[in-house]
Amino acid sequence: MYPSVTKVVPSEDFTLAIAFDNGEEGILDMKPYLGFGVFQRIADAEHFKRVRVAFDTIEWDCDVDLDPEFVYAKCTMTVSGNAPTHGGSVSGGTATQPRLGRRRREA
């Protein structure tokens, strides 16, 4: 089971500050994904900043959403501004394609 997203705040550098219902917080770097498929829709800063919490994950108003397990797994977790505690930084190593949320899989 994965924690639900409770808050998301976009930044100009195409990262998302995300809070989870288990009290953890993290940063999700979306830059590695913006050139692929539907994620090109959020490569524009105006579209990117229109992210919101939907159900237990995040979505944008241009029909892009992320699988909540991907969001949690790829966040670089922080503890009160300290160094990351777990999770994989999507800016380092090889980027894997993010999974679309349930809405896309059910369509």
Provide an overview of this structure.
The strands form two sheets. This protein has a four-stranded antiparallel β-sheet with strand order 1-2-3-7, covered by helices on one side. It has helices at residues 45-48, 68-74, 102-106, and strands spanning 5-10, 15-20, 25-29, 51-54, 57-60, 64-65, 76-78. The protein is globular. It is α+β, with helices and mostly antiparallel strands and 107 residues long. A hairpin with a 3-residue loop joins strand 5 (57-60) and strand 6 (64-65). It has one domain: NE0471 N-terminal domain-like (2-Layer Sandwich).
Provide a concise account of the structure shown:
15% of the residues lie in helices and 28% in strands. By secondary structure, the protein is an alpha+beta fold. It has one domain (5-96): NE0471 N-terminal domain-like, CATH 3.30.2020.10.
